[in-house]
Design goal:
Layout: E1 4-16, E2 22-29, E3 31-45, E4 48-65, H1 70-77, E5 80-96, E6 103-105, E7 116-120, E8 127-133, E9 142-146, E10 149-152, E11 160-176, E12 185-196, E13 201-213, E14 218-220, E15 228-235, E16 246-249
Parallel strand pairs: 8-9
Antiparallel strand pairs: 1-2, 1-12, 3-4, 4-15, 5-11, 6-10, 7-8, 7-11, 9-10, 12-13, 13-15, 13-16, 14-15
Length: about 250
């Protein structure tokens, strides 16, 4: 018997059950936790339990990571990936109209007909009023635009402004989660590294022949801490070998 500690967690490869092709390689798993449960069955005689055995063994695998990819999201959410040849991306920009000249210049070229301009409080979010677009000289309730430069009335000089608009783009990556489509089944190979009490490092493989992501998933987006992601897979037995999962060390 050899005793070892886990040195690092897991690199993951997901293979489609439908054709065995590689769906995604994900080298950033912080941990993989496997939980096994089973039902207890009892036979009684004269009101006392005289035989017990286990049945209906089940397992789940939970993957924790602080790094994510669109490929992994597609797998765990049952999402659909696509590329839009053309489309738009929303932009939000805060700033101030100039003091000497009441203008504000946005960073990107505005998609036609998508610009909204608001006067806001110092927090940059509380809307005071929306300015309307005009082709000629604007009043204090209006703005005009030429290329990326927004001009308003001199009464609005040095006031806070919020601009919401869209930017045209090409080859936009899109992930869509539909209410009536769910995750497919995958086989998973997880590769980690262990270190024995003798100081020898070994590779260890976890093989999961049949895994399907649960409908529920947790995402944490944080500005102050590293975002964390947790995904749980239901493991089904391989119909030929009845294997739920296995470990191999090299």
């Amino acid at each position: 018997m050899e005793f070892y500690g886990i040195k690092n967690a897991c690199k993951l490869a997901f293979y489609k059950k439908s054709d065995g092709s590689l769906a995604a390689y994900f080298p950033f798993g912080n941990s993989i936790a496997i939980s096994v449960t089973g039902d207890s069955v009892e036979a009684t005689a004269q009101g006392s339990t005289i035989i017990t055995w286990a049945a209906n063994r089940k397992a789940t695998a939970t993957i924790e990571t602080q790094v994510i990819s669109s490929k992994l999201l597609t797998i765990v959410l049952g999402a659909i990936t696509s590329t839009e040849p053309t489309g738009t991306i929303a932009r939000f920009e805060n700033g101030k109209f100039g003091t000497a000249s009441p203008t504000f210049t946005v960073q990107d070229t505005i998609s036609s007909g998508t610009l909204s301009v608001f006067l806001v409080e110092d927090d940059g979010a509380t809307v005071i009023s929306e300015l309307s677009s005009v082709a000629g000289s604007p009043t204090n309730a209006q703005y005009s635009i030429a290329n990326k430069v927004i001009t308003t009335h001199v009464d609005n000089a040095d006031k806070n402004v919020l601009c919401i608009y869209a930017v045209d783009g090409t080859n936009l990556d899109k992930i869509t989660i539909k209410a009536d489509e769910f995750a497919q089944a995958y086989s998973i190979k997880a590769l980690g590294k262990v270190k024995t009490v003798n100081g020898v490092e070994k590779l260890q493989e976890i093989n999961i022949p049949n895994a399907t992501a649960q409908t529920n998933a947790d995402f944490t987006y944080s500005a102050s801490d590293a975002s964390s992601f947790s995904f749980t897979f239901d493991l089904a037995a391989d119909p030929a070998s009845m294997e739920l999962f296995s470990f191999k060390s090299l």
